[in-house]
Amino acid sequence: MNEKSYTELMKKSAMKKKHLKESFVLDLYIDMLLSEILLKKEKAKLMEKIDEAIDTNNKRAFNHLSKQYQELTRRFGN
Asked: What Gene3D superfamilies does its record include (predicted)?
């Protein structure tokens, strides 16, 4: 018979819990990293549009885009 001892079962259970925690932390880190990349990309895109509005002397677009940029910065603190 191939029965596992209580100690072996407890070790296996502990390892499984540890693996699940590590996996959760890794998933959380990946999510944070992707969010940061998307935020930087969105800010860069807005900055390009703001620069274009300045170059074309478009005050209306500049004001609108600046407000979007400020809101993005306020929400994410960067």
From this structure: Virus Scaffolding Protein, Chain A
- Give the distance, in angstroms, between the CA of residue 78 and the centroid of all CA atoms in the same chain: 13
Under 8 Å between Cβ of 58 and 42? no
Phi, psi of 55 (to 5 degrees): -60, -35
CB distance 65 to 53 below 8 Å: yes
Residue 65 class from Cβ within 10 Å (0-12 exposed, 13-18 middle, 19+ buried)?
A: buried
Cα-based angle 34, 75, 52 (whole degrees, multiple of 5): 80
Query: pLDDT truncated to tens, each residue of the chain (78 aa)?
Result: 456 787 887 888 888 888 888 888 899 999 999 999 999 999 999 999 999 999 999 999 999 999 999 999 988 876
